[in-house]
Design a protein that fits this description.
Strand content: 35-45%
Number of helices: 5
Radius of gyration: 20 Å
CATH class: Mainly Beta
CATH topology: Methylamine Dehydrogenase, Chain H
Number of domains: 1
Shape: globular
Strand order of the largest sheet: 1-2-3-4
CATH architecture: 7 Propeller
Largest sheet: 4 strands, antiparallel
Helix content: under 10%
Distance between the termini: 22 Å
CATH superfamily: Regulator of chromosome condensation 1/beta-lactamase-inhibitor protein II
Structural class: mainly beta
Length: 439
Amino acid sequence: MTLCMGDGSTLMVTEDGDMSVFGVNSYGHLGLGHEDKVIHPTLLAKDKFAGVDVVMASAGCHHSACVTSTGTLWMWGACGMGFDVYVPMPVFRQLKVLMVACGGHFTMILTRGKRVWTCGDGQYGQLGHNNTQSSTQFAQIDPELFGTGASVTTIAAGYGNGMALTATTAGDTLWTWGRGEYGILGHGYNTENRLVPVAIPATTFGGVSVISMDGGTQHMLVVTSDGSLWGCGSDYCGALGLHEHGIQGDPSVYTLQKVVGPEFADGSGVLMAACGLSHSVVLAKNHTVWVCGGNSQYLSGVYSGSYYGFYETDDPFNLRSLTSINPKLFGGKKVLVVAGGNDECGAVTEDGDVRVWGFREMSRPHLHARIGRWHTLPQDHALAFGMMFQERLGADASPLKGLPADVLQSMFGNMHLQPHADTPNALHNMLGRRPPMRR
């Protein structure tokens, strides 16, 4: 992700391959060498990462991580290594890393060989090693657990659960494991913790492929290629948007249910979704932004003020269905990326600008550089695709396979990429419609 939010911290990857950070820093998880709160975005330049471009970042509760263009993983904060790290530290040097996902107190990585490794807190089985032990060292999840011949294409992490998407000749499969409370794993009324990856039945999405997923503390969201949004877990505060008229009985949703379909947002459908603590933020393909869940009337940009009853189910500030944010609040610019944090939301606009909002009015942090928008894509395939055709992102990554054309066009249609001269004609035409952004 180019924009990610943890427990009060915000990380941004710039167009130049640096990082800009601000927010809560009590464990040194901003990587600035101290524990002081940082109000204004502060540059964490690439010289902190051996002079190599950062291509994606992820934030947990008290730790942060990023991947550079050479496939090196860097971590800092309370990163599960047995001690706190106040400046970025390179770890896991044995293999090239494609992407990283920080959970609450654990970390998942996907290598360029399409293998999943985990470390950190394992109390819910979120490390996927068939036990509840924690580990200060990365260990690989047995590839056979994802099925014979399967290739892991993307990963995601919730507070205490892991998610992975695999591809085979028979189709894509979503796998979940770890904390099962509230039905967050989507495996039905058996809410026991799952110590190894378990597949979501292929029939769940009616034959439509999954393109991205995200997890919060008590809920999970999934986006499919037809623009539908699915959710499971706790809807106590309205984070799933499935109890518009209030809760009657059990607020938990134990299997993935469709929240909205392709008809959403004037027929554009959903492009991506992000989970906050007990709220959700959704980006439609028409670039409109929507929120629901705990205190999301504040998160909708309508209200600002004090913190009120975040977990009260009858709180009038909990929006129980997806509610649109006024596009004027984004300065008339298209929104390309959204993120959810503890009690806030964030968005990146088409000009590489950032808006952050929550219990205060929407703000526009002063940045040193634009946010590098092509680093933030809904799934691993798209990240690999960008890496393959952007020389500065490393040409040895995997190519894109099997992503629907309409999803590709939605992702890249507004991006100012300069394709390589030897890019295939069809892709060259799609990527080369606009000139590169001028500085």
